[in-house]
Amino acid sequence: MSHPFSAAAAPDLPPHPSAASSPPPPRAGEPALSVRGLVRVFGRPGTPEAKVAVDRVDLDVPRGSFFGLVGRNGAGKTTMLSMATGLLRPTAGSVRVTGVDVWAEPRRAKQLMGVLPDGVHLFDRLTGRQLVTYSGLLRGMDRETVARRTEDLLHAMDLSGDAGTQVQDYSAGMTKKIALAGALIHAPSLLVLDEPFESVDPVSAANIRAILHAFVAAGGTVVVSSHVMDLVQRMCDHVAVLDRGRVLAAGTVDEVRAGASLEDRFVELVGGRAGAGEGLSWLRPE
Amino acid sequence: MAAPGVNRAGTVPPLAPAPAVHGAGSAVLVGRLVGLKARILLNTVTRSTWVLVGTILGAAYFLFVLAFAVLGLVLLGGQDLSLVRTVLVLAGGGTTLAWWLLPVLASRADATLDPARLALFPLGVGQVQWGQAVGALVGVPGALTTVALIASVSSWRSSVPAVVAAVFCLPLALALVVSGSRLVTALAVGLGRRRRATEVLSLVALLGLVLMGPLLAGAMNGLEGTWDRLPEWAAALAWTPVGAVWAVPADVAAGRWPEAAARTALTVASVAVLVLCWRVAQARALTSATTERRAGPRADAGAGLFDRIPERPWAAVAARCLLYWVRDPRYSGALVVVPAIAAVVWFSSAQDGMDFLFYALGPMFAALLAYQISGDVSFDNTAVSLHVLTGVRGLHDRLGRVLALLVVAVPLSAIGLLLPFVLQGRWELLPGLAGATVLALLGGAGLASVMSARYTYPVAAPGQSPFKTPQGFTVLNVLVQFVALGLIVLLVLPAAVLVLIQVFTGDPSWGWTALGTGVVLGPLVCWGGIVLGGRWYDRRAPELLQEVAQYR
C-alpha cells in the first residue's frame, strides 16, 4: 500500500474541473496562492489589548509546488491560512487564488480550494461517510460523483471499516483523516492544510503524503503548515518561515535552509533558543 | 484548549520544590487541591469584563435568595418546635436530594477536580476524596448550603439542647450531602464513557424535573388539606437516610433520646456507606480514567438520509439538521421538553378559569420549536466553518435549517393544536388557532433565520451535556434571547387577537380571518426571514464564525 491512490481514486483527484462544480479555468501564469500586505489585528486597533497576529505578509505559492509554512506555536500560521481561505476577514491586504480574489469573489475562490482547518469542530454526529458526502453535496456536486469519490477517499484514508461510525467516536488521527477526505471531495486545484499530520499515525501519515505527492505530480498545489521541520524538509519543495506574524524567509527549501538542516536554519532565523537544560540542573533521576 | 483556567493562573507554581511532593502530608495536598479549585473559579470569573458583570449579577441573585432563606430560618426560630421540625426535615431532605441528583443532570457539572484529570498525579484515593469534599464547599452551592445550614441552627433557639444538637449535626449533614453528591459524580464519570447512556439519563432526569412541578401541584390539588399532612410526610422522611439528620435536634429538645440516637446512627451509617462506595467508585475512575470505550464499527453502506434527498445544497443542510434533531441531545432535549410542556399546561389549565391556556398548546409548541433554531449557528459552533469553506449560499443555509425544523415541528404542532379539541371540544375555535399556529411556526422560523445569522449566544458546545452552563454567558446574550422570544410572541399577536375577538363575540368569521392571516402572513414572514437572513449570512459569515469560536 505504498501508493494507495494509484489505482482506485487517481482518476478523480487531478484538478481538472468537474462538470458539476465547474470552477473557472485557472488563469495561466498566476501563482496558486498570492498574498499581498496581509494584516490581522485582534482587538480594537490602537488599544493596549490590540494584538497584531499577522503583520504585512507578502507570499507567493507557485503553481504545482508543495509548500510548507513553518513557525512556532502562535506565530500566526493558522491566522494567515484562515484569512487565505475565507474563514477570517483580514484587517488589510488581499489574497488571490490563481488570480481570483478570495474576499471579492469568495464563491469562485472557494471552488478552487480544498481546506483542512485546524482546531475546529466537525459535524461529528454524522458518520464518517455522511460527513464526506455532506461536504460534497454542500458544494452542489451530483450525488453519483459524490458517492463514488466518497468511497474512494474512505478507502484511501483506510477508514472504510469505520465509515458507519459517528465521527465523534473517532480518534484524533481518524478525525483528521476524515476532515481531509472532506476537503478533497471536489478535486480542488489548491489544497490548504493546517497541521494535517498532527496525531496521525505513521502509516496513515505515509498514505496521506503519498496522496498529496500524487496530487502535486498531477499539477495540483499543496500548502501545509507544520512545526515539524524534518517533515517539511523531506516533503515540501518550497517553504516559508513565519514568526510573530511576519515572513522571515521564503523560497525553495534548498534556498531557505542554505546548506544547513531546515531545523537549524529555522532556530537560527527565529532565535530564542535556551541553552541545553540551562536552569534545570535539578532535573535528573534521584 | 485543555483547562483554560489553569494556564491563565496568575501565580505559576514554581517547578523547584520537587522533594516537597514526597514529604507533603495529606493535609497539604488537600489544601492545594482546594486552592486549585478556588483559583480556577476565580480565573473563570475574571476572564472578561462581561463575564464578571454576569457573575456579579448572578451572585447578587444568589445572595438575595440566600438572604431570604436565612431570614426565613431565623424567623422560624420564633415558631413552635414541631413546626420547626416539619419545615427543616422537608427542606433539609429536599436539599440533600438536590445535592445527590444534581451531578446526574449536569453530568460533569463540577469537573475541576474530576478524577480523570487528576489520574496522572501521585495522589492517593483518600487524598483526592478529601480534596474533593472540601473543594465542594468552596464552590457556589457549597458556600450557600453551608451558610443556610449555619442559619438553620438559629431556628432551634427556643431549646438550648436542640441548638447544641444542631451544631453537632451540622458537619454530619454536610458530610451527608457532599459524600452522596461525590459518589454520584464518581459513578457518572464511569457512565460518561458510555455516551448514549449519559445522554438518555440526563434527558430522563430533565423530564422528571420538568414534570415534578405539575405532579406535585396535582397531588396538592387532589388532596385537600395537604398542609395538615406535611407533618406526617416529615415524620416518614425523618426515618430515611435523607431526612434523619434534620430531625435529631427536635428529638433532643423533646427528650426522646432513643430516637435521637437511632437517627444519628442511621445518618452516620449512611455517610459511612456513601464514603465507602464513593471510595470504590473513585478508585475505579482513577485507574480507568483514560480507557475510552469506543463504539464498534458499523459497516452499513450508504450515507443514510443523504442518499434520499435532492442534489441541492439546501437539501443537504436540511438532512444534516434533521439528523442533529434526532442524534444531538441539545436538539432532542427540545423535543423531550415539548410533551413536558403539554403536561405542565394541562395541569395548570385544570384549575378554574385557566382552561383557555390549554388551547394555546399548538402555537406554544410551534413558537418554542421555531425558537430553537435561533441558536442554530451557536449550536454548530466552529463546525459551521464547513459551510463557510464550501461557499454555501446564505439562502441555502437558512432554507435548509428551516426545512429541517418544519419536518420536525409540523407534526408536533399539529398534535399540540388538535389535542385540546379532541379532549375538550369547542371545535369552532380550530380555524383561528390553526392560523395562530401557522403564524407562530412559519413566522417564528423566519425570525429565527434572521436572528441566528446576526446574533449568536453561548450554548453548550458540541458533545457537551445540554445542561452544561456555557462559559461567557453575559447579560447581553440573555437579552438577545428574550428579544427573540418576545418578537415571536409579537408576531403571533395578530392571529391571537382575532381568536380572542371570536371568543368574546362568538362570531366564527373572526376565526376564519385569523386562519387567513396566518396562512398569508406566515409564509411571507418565513420567506422574508430566509432571504434577509441569507443576505446577512453571506455578508458576515466569517464574523459569525469568529463569534461562535469563542463559545467553548
UniProtKB/TrEMBL annotation, chain A:
SUPFAM superfamilies: P-loop containing nucleoside triphosphate hydrolases. Residues 1-11 have a biased composition (Low complexity). It is a peripheral membrane protein. It holds the Pfam family ABC_tran. Keywords: Antibiotic resistance, ATP-binding, Nucleotide-binding, Transport. Gene3D superfamilies: P-loop containing nucleotide triphosphate hydrolases. The keyword Hydrolase does not apply. This is ABC transporter ATP-binding protein. It comes from Kocuria dechangensis.
From TrEMBL, chain B:
Keywords: ATP-binding, Membrane, Nucleotide-binding, Transmembrane, Transmembrane helix. The chain crosses the membrane at residues 50-76, 83-102, 130-153, 160-180, 200-218, 230-248, 331-350, 356-373, 402-423, 429-453, 474-504, 510-532. GO terms for molecular function: ATP binding. Coiled coil: none annotated. This is ABC transporter ATP-binding protein.
